[in-house]
Amino acid sequence: MAVDVENTEVTQEYGADQIQILEGLEAVRKRPGMYIGSTSSTGLHHLVYEIVDNSVDEALAGYCKNITVTIREDNSIKVEDDGRGIPVGINHKAGLPAVEVVFTILHAGGKFGGGGYKVSGGLHGVGASVVNALSEWLEVFIYQGGKEYTQRFERGVSQFSLKEIGPSDKNGTTVIFKPDATIFEDTEYEFDTLKTRLKEMAFLTKGLHITLIDERNEEPRKKDYCFEGGIIEYVNSINKNKETLYDDVIYCEGTKDNVFVEVAMQHNDSNYEYVHGFVNNINTPEGGTHVTGFRNAITKTFNDYARKNKFLNEKDGSLSGEDLREGLTAIISIKISEPQFEGQTKQKLGNSEARGAVESVLTQHLTYYLEQNPKNARVIIEKAILARTAREAARKARELIKRKSSLETSTLPGKLADCSDRDPKNCEIYIVEGDSAGGSAKTARNRATQAILPLRGKILNVEKARKDHIFSNAEIQAMITAFGTGIEDDFDIDKLRYHKIIIMTDADVDGAHIATLMLTFLYRYMPELIKQGHVYLAQPPLYKIERNKKIWYAYDDAERDRILTEIGRDKNNKLQRYKGLGEMDAEQLWDTTMDPAKRVLKQVVLNPEDEVSIDEVFNTLMGDKVEPRRDFIEKNAKYAELDI
Fold it and tell me: Which DSSP helix (H) or strand (E) runs through 132?
């Protein structure tokens, strides 16, 4: 299978009878989470991706060059492409126009062996029908054979049969839909969320032009994406704020066992690997056989080269895959005709042939690359050798933490004021900066369910530090020991001692910096705590307002102004701007920030689809390069809010 769009054209007929029916459309409105994950913002945006995926499939088949996604003023979505257009003829099995089949019958589409597509991202064929079922209304316009056709649906039900409405000189499909407000928690689309996903799709489909337009503002926002370099440009984008070890991105492509493989990779000087796999443009955050093949090839090829060129002797043993992938940014993109995913969410690939294909293609190309680029090969292997040394030191530090964490043989950190309840579901731990605030929090807390761990000063910036320094840091050791889960390979979420980990810092710039340092550590070394919803940010008030012995607390300037307007602005008002948690006595701290009945907590949410942008934010804010950090702060200072 070739990479260029022109060479992937399908020769089989793509007509009405290629739309195959697997089962009827039922229960989607009753159980939407089964089909789109949730009815939250994530599910709302997933509707757009389902329709865009169909257009991208046309691009993969060699027929679509342009896709335009528009957020309209009423938060309805319009997706236009210049592909072949959904077939308009009668599907004889259903006795309905193929368009109606696609939009009203679950698991109906041109992707089930009917010859419509060689490869497809929309594997399950639920996209169009599910979007239709979960929309207040949906309209489809098809441009095909010199004519324009249309059909309208309301909550999944056809309002009239497919009809021809006039001549047309273009080809393609336009879908316009408005999400059903009775289904979704919120129907407000986020431009930046869509932008991130559409940019990723453009990286993965070399030469495809994707445009995003937002018509909700007086000045419409617009983003255009087209990457002739494909995943090479993707790697460059991820590494743009990092110090790379060599200038060029290592790229390979090839086909084996009918699996087309593309890999782009480049090392940087960080301690973290970023390896991301895609199958037919579908993100696979849990990896799978294609990622396993990639890792096998990296480990074997670099070790073979290192021994052959005397970087390693027999006493040294082999470099581990972990050592060789330290600081590696890589995109693995494969195209396969019948992908087998584990689970409805398509997060892990199961095809055995994908492992062998990736391993074979990458091994062959990488062997040649290392022989042709000995300078780059030396830099990579020397970094891996240093990584091995640091990893061994880090292992010893982790073993020390494990010994300290063993509740049977040791005690918890001395500074920890633990709670008496032993059911983790009932327990929460406040991570508090400073002895003063920690003292107030210990006095204020509910001793049965609230633990307090005060930290001294700002914790280590793990984005810049070596692993052995990280694991030997006293404050980080205290957090790891208190949580009870272990870390990295030893991490076990079932051993978590508190189901709420609450970061409580001052409501100022220093407090935001400390919170970011803590989140950086959790994101890099204990990401499951965030992924499973255990991490929160406390929201202490900024102002205390007192009048005639009555007290109000304001959490931002707008709330302060609203309270002052309500009670009247005069000389009897006492307005206090809190400089830190230490200024509150225990009663005030409980009343404003720790009482579960009154407090405000922000849950830290990690969306796997935003992993690239999240990684970029942490690297920009906490990495070595000053210029990107300055640019980021200047661009985002107006928002004045930590939003991960």
Answer: helix 127-133
